[in-house]
Amino acid sequence: MAIIEVKQLSKTYGQGSAAVTALDGVNLAIEKGQFVTVMGPSGCGKSTLLHLIGGLDRPSAGSVFIEDKDISMLPDDKLTELRRRKMGFVFQFFNLIPVLSAEENAALPLILDGVKPEIAHTRAAEWLARNQMGDRLSHRPDQLSGGQQQRVAIARAMVADPLMLLADEPTGNLDSRASDDIAALLRHAVSDWGRTVLMVTHDPRIAAYADRIVFLKDGRVVDDTLLDGGKAENTRMLKEKVDRL
């Protein structure tokens, strides 16, 4: 059963002669436990698709279903609750609160959801340990490398045990070694922790960690490929596809 499904999804910004179509009738279904990457040229609608699926924006037309529930019809308070409990978000910029420690940042979603602080901090520490950050619990963001900050952000995204992770260019601000570490961590979220991951990236090497690649161009799906080769082989294939777009 599809955990995420979008039907005839469209998004237009502006009106009249100034209107820009970011997505144009996209249909997509993602199964539970899949790692799916969205690729395509700059401005093709990748981030718009992710934001609509995550309920961060409303579609101009079409529907977004999460577990068969049309979230595009939910009122704002119910949509906020669904995001907080069903989805974890990871962005290119880590969006950590500078004055809070790694543990405090990771615990924040639970505390905002009314979980007792001692329980929230225990669960945050557990997820930080899973992300190889167990020895950095008291460190503030300015005391951590970029890769470490992104590990904290992933722990924060996972702390409420969401069904899915939505990652928008999660390695875009990192060097190649840290990028591979973060991509491998997202792979673990699928294979070891049973989550569904939807990631946007422009990097074929990072995309090759996924199970499936969806290519967008001019706001439409133009290719949908399952990956079944080795990482090096998949990276080469994805580079060739990107070059042809």
Walkthrough of the structure:
There is one protein chain. This protein has 245 residues and is of the alpha/beta class. It has a single domain, classed as Rossmann fold, CATH 3.40.50.300. The strands form 2 sheets. Strands 6-7-8-3-9-10 form a 6-stranded mixed beta sheet, sandwiched between helices. A 4-stranded antiparallel beta sheet has the order 2-1-4-5, covered by helices on one side. β1 and β2 form a beta hairpin. α3 runs parallel beside α5. The longest helix has 16 residues. The radius of gyration is 18 Å and the shape is globular. The two termini are 31 Å apart. The relative contact order is 0.18. The model has no long low-confidence stretch (mean pLDDT 93).
SSE topology sketch:
Layout: E1 2-13, E2 20-31, E3 35-39, H1 46-53, E4 61-66, E5 69-70, H2 76-86, E6 87-91, H3 102-112, H4 117-130, H5 146-158, E7 164-168, H6 176-191, E8 196-200, H7 204-207, E9 212-217, E10 220-226, H8 231-244
Parallel strand pairs: 3-8, 3-9, 6-7, 7-8
Antiparallel strand pairs: 1-2, 1-4, 4-5, 9-10
Helix pairs in contact: 3-4, 3-5, 4-5, 5-6
CATH superfamily: P-loop containing nucleotide triphosphate hydrolases
The tally of beta strands, per DSSP, is: 10
- Cα-to-Cα separation, first versus last residue: 31 Å
Rg over C-alpha atoms, rounded to the nearest angstrom = 18 Å
| Poorly predicted tracts of residues | none
